[in-house]
Amino acid sequence: MAIQSRRGAYADFDPNKMLPGEWAVVTSGDPNDPDGRAIYLCYIAGIVERMATYEDMKKNVQSAAKGERGSRWDYGTKITGTSTSEQIFSNSGINDANKGDYYLNISTGYVYYCTVGGLASVAKWKYIGSIKGPTGPKGSIGNTGATGATGPQGPAATIQIGTVTTGKPGTQASVTNTGTENAAVLNFAIPRGDTGAVENLSQQQVDFSEASQRQNIQSEETLAILFGKIKKYFSDVESEVFEKLKQDAESESAQSGAFLLGNLKIQWGRIDNLDVPASGSIQTDAITFPHAYGAPPFLTCIPLGNYYLAANPTNNVNLSQASFRVRAADGAAHNDRSILWLAIGY
């Protein structure tokens, strides 16, 4: 039978399967050789020995001359864990490990023992213990150190009030510093309170004064300001429009008239042939508005001519009619007099 040979990695090498006279070439991973390569010869079944090449003999002679190295300590953080079973750590970075070497993990303090030497991809290690002992008892508290020297006095601080603004109801109050730590400028934002409820608002009395000039009403103004502006508006209407109507009524014989602007109705008229006694007063007959109102109108009246008379609307006023009460203001009787009335409303 011809002599055969085998070849392959050490992991696939099984000497028990070799036949007498058969060679086996290990191409990689042999733990018995630093470069992982070796040759084996089977003499008889079950007896397989490793052969040495010329290069192997040369290395052995050189090693014998200088002596083999003893156990070595390596260190790092690549070999980890607490398994007591042999393991390969291919990323250990140790490619010349010998059986009997030790490895210290400098992060955990764990110690490992090399059971199979060789390259990092072959060498095997196992955990054997730790250089860290158990945690000792807590030491006593040390003495209080001496008081440090007083630091230099810092600069004097100043505080100024910047702006104060009113925020919307329900927002958070805030204070911001737009200055520096030593020269603070504080800006305040204070939320406005919720609008309170007023019971029986229709029965509440409002104290107000006529505005000095005619202006549009604005949202969120108080009732006193609103009524003051409205009063100014009606005063101007009475003084400007009513004077024009008075002139027309005195110069013309028209008994009534009206000016319509959308839903706004400005109506006027005159009542003649009034005999006013020196004392007491008289009530005029009811006049009918040329255009009825949808709500009670603003109503006023004045006497025509330079007479000392006083005229006011009576309580007998509705949406389509009104009457007036006239009296002498100078204590003298006045006959055949006239008054001019003005009604404004919607």
Automatic annotation (TrEMBL):
Organism from which the protein derives: Blautia hydrogenotrophica (strain DSM 10507 / JCM 14656 / S5a33)
Lineage: Bacteria, Bacillati, Bacillota, Clostridia, Lachnospirales
Protein name: Collagen triple helix repeat (20 copies)
